[in-house]
Design goal:
Elements (H helix, E strand, L loop, with lengths): L3 E6 H9 L3 E3 L11 H12 L7 E8 L6 E7 L1 H12 L17 H9 L1 E6 L5 H11 L8 H8 L3 H10 L2 H5 L5 H5 L2 H15 L8 H7 L7 H18 L10 H17 L6 H19 L6 H11 L5 H20 L4
Parallel strand pairs: 2-4, 3-5
Antiparallel strand pairs: 1-5, 3-4
Helix pairs in contact: 1-3, 7-10, 10-13, 12-13, 12-14, 13-16, 14-15, 14-16, 15-16
Amino acid sequence: MKTSATNRRIRILMTAIRDEKLIPRPEFQRRLVWTNRHKEEFLQTVLMNYPFPEIYVASGEVDTETGEGTEMLVDGQQRITTLYQYFTGSSDLILREIRPYAELEKDEKFTFLEYEVVIRDLGNKSIEEIKEVFRRINSTKYSLNAMEVHNARFDGELKKFAEQLAEHSFFSENHVFGTLDIRRMGDLVFSLTAIISVMGGYFNRQDELEEFLAKYNDEFSDANDLRQQFDEVFHVLTQCQFPPKCRAWKKADLLTLIVETFVALHSKSLKLDPNILASILVEFYETVDAVRDNETEDKNAAMYYKAAVQGTNDRSNRIRRAEIIAPLIQKSSMEFPA
């Protein structure tokens, strides 16, 4: 594929965006969703007259009567959008470290507008060809799972908090996540699921991840409170000293246990006795395992077992497990000595 590279001044790009001559293509531009910190760092690069990687464009529609045409932005949407937000004073851009464009001196504005951006023109290509170019520009060695796609797009405050939670000693000391879990971000999915569940309730599979990652990309003011509250949950569960092969360490069961312990401690303000809690839960988990071996007819255990081994990430099964585990956790509080 033959391409050509040229330089264009920012002012040319800004007027092209304004006049809808340069058209973003969001259907294949779903990459990193920048935080304001990312945007400011990028703008500082431009204002300091440092270079940044080239932008890819391709020919768009052409009016054969007037000769006017458009271009499609193939790669570089975040960079161009950030420049346009800065130039137009958009409320979507919150500036803390640099002055708004409107407050720059005349010569500073001139320097900004005259900054030259390297543009690689792909020419007249079909949408399918353009998508293939974009895919290859941003390719990896293997197909991305859902969390890896989110990871490529979001690098904000909620994600950072979830990463910190996934690295908590509670998980490593109890060998919750294996090498493959960590490599394919299963640990991050688990911690995000726990965080979102205590904030907004149980949800289906990974349906809420993108919404919450986007909502709390720039700011996550609950981080400090949640960190302390999860520490308290992990402290209680550590004191329970569940045996290594206890069902409590299976991921679906552990997610329910963490969330419902969190609810008991911080939503219901219960005081839990770890020894009593461990005794109640170990006995229950043994009954659940007996269902697997056809050695019990306990209805609660049977319902729990089914919800823990089939469609474990379905919202209905997460709720069903919680409805069974929550009263057992609360019982350890009711039996706590005065």
